[in-house]
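User: Please fill in residues for this 392-position structure.
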């Protein structure tokens, strides 16, 4: 029992802070809008983005080479990665990163202890290396020590950590190279968590698999699943987001722009106005409001309203990761970064970044490894513009 309590405290202080203040903060209006980007991803403590010229930049923690710059030195400002190549998609996990070039070539780098890089080894890589040579990819999603990608033919492949069936191949055995999942079904979107995964087929059917201890798969049970299972049958989905922390939850947006969430709700991260009540099936959030984008962090969630482009966040807020200028937890959607309009949001380990409708990057929350990219390791209690000079 003592060991379990100690482990919880370590997780609590490292990832969450273990307290909830209510002191208010005011918007930092002195900050510029931020640099221009077209793609954005956030790992546990590092961030990557693609600029309008299709060039990749990363910043934050780098102890396993997850930034891809050939070193293990943390970076608090963005730097170009693999500048000889142009990129179309990127996804940051716990301590590894994968990206797809504009030619469809998949590359991965960083920690590889569970073969999450997909190169058939468990050797870390400090620079981008080609994975699954000869296969072209259109989308990549990595989280924890698990990776999944969709080929240009719509084939879903996964690799890496599989202890709870998060790869979806019917086993709980790690895979060191990309393995076809749900053969015969083509996929449109994929979202990986640390131990569970959800995907949207080309027919807009939602499927989930893996760990299900808090009902995060959404099938009405808490039983793990090692194969893709249809969720919310009869409802079609366009976007899906999956948490990568031990208090797992999942959110998705239907093709009618209705937001639904399910799973763990200890800190109100589901957004249904309650806290501590887990949901084992998808529940509608903010009925009557349409949403265009969704992202789930460790224990907080953010979404963009489609009609207004206002940003809303809810859940745990110790590091002011909700962007509402307070450190008060919220159990229902609360407007963030008032005065700015958003098109894209990424929530992660107690920090959040988003792209405004002008594709300017703004970030806030925890910043102990420079993951916000503002040149410091100082937490930000209100959103600030990152990279004020537009990138060429």
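Assistant: Residues filled in for all 392 positions:
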């Amino acid at each position: 029992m003592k060991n379990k309590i100690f482990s919880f405290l370590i997780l609590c202080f490292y990832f969450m802070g273990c307290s909830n203040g209510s002191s208010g903060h005011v918007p930092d209006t002195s900050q510029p809008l931020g640099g221009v980007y077209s793609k954005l991803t956030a790992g546990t403590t590092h961030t990557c983005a693609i600029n309008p010229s299709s060039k990749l930049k990363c910043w934050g923690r780098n102890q396993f080479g997850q930034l891809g710059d050939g070193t293990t030195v943390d970076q608090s400002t963005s730097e170009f990665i693999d500048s000889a190549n142009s990129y179309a998609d990127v996804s940051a996990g716990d301590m590894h990163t994968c990206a797809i070039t504009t030619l469809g070539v998949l590359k991965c780098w960083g920690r590889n202890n569970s073969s999450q890089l997909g190169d058939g080894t468990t050797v870390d890589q400090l620079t981008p290396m080609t994975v699954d040579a000869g296969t072209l990819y259109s989308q990549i999603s990595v989280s924890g020590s698990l990776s999944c990608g969709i080929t240009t033919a719509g084939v879903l492949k996964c690799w890496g950590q599989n202890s709870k069936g998060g790869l979806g191949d019917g086993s709980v055995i790690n895979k060191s190279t990309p393995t076809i999942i749900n053969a015969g079904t083509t996929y449109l979107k994929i979202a990986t968590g640390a131990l569970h995964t959800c995907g949207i087929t080309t027919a807009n059917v939602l499927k989930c698999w893996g760990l299900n201890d808090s009902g995060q798969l959404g099938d009405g049970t808490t039983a793990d699943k090692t194969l893709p299972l249809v969720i919310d049958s009869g409802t079609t989905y366009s976007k899906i987001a999956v948490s990568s922390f031990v208090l797992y939850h999942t959110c998705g947006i239907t093709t009618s722009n209705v937001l639904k969430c399910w799973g763990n709700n200890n800190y109100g991260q589901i957004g249904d106005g309650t806290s501590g009540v887990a949901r084992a099936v998808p529940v509608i959030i903010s009925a009557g409001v349409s949403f265009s984008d969704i992202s789930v962090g460790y224990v907080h969630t953010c979404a963009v309203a489609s009609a207004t482009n206002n940003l809303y966040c809810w859940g745990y807020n110790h590091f002011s990761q909700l962007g509402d200028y307070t450190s008060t937890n919220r159990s229902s959607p609360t407007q963030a970064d008032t005065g700015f309009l958003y098109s894209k949001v990424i929530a992660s380990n107690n920090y959040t970044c988003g792209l405004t409708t002008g594709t300017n990057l703004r970030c806030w929350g925890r910043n102990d490894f420079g993951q916000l990219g503002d040149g410091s390791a100082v937490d930000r209690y209100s959103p600030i513009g990152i990279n004020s000079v537009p990138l060429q």
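For context: The chain has one domain: 33-312.
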